[in-house]
Design a protein that fits this description.
alpha+beta; Glutaredoxin
Amino acid sequence: MLTLYGISNCDTVRKAKKWLDAHQVDYRFHDFRKDGLTAADIESWQSQLGLEKLINKRGTTWRQLSNAEREMAENPNSQATELLLQYPALIKRPLLEGSLPEGSSICEVGFNETLYNDLINGVTHE
């Protein structure tokens, strides 16, 4: 089953949810703020995606960080994990993770209709 992670009032998350619903994809929604996150979640995403892809540097949360916090966020260590736990809005969203019906696993950030369509239909991307 797929899990869509994000923040419920995020426009991009809403687009992804609408697309998944329209294509009758079985998923559950996990709100970063309401449902929380664990260090294990973040470390798993960090190992699969890398910090550069995982961190949202375009949002207001990033702009409000101190220079020291930004440095922490860019270094793959436990401090980056702690910072993402403290500021979950730093994580790019939506984050789609889970297993597809044919058995493959996915972990992707952002919403791109073509990519979602390819993922759901078993097309791989490098």
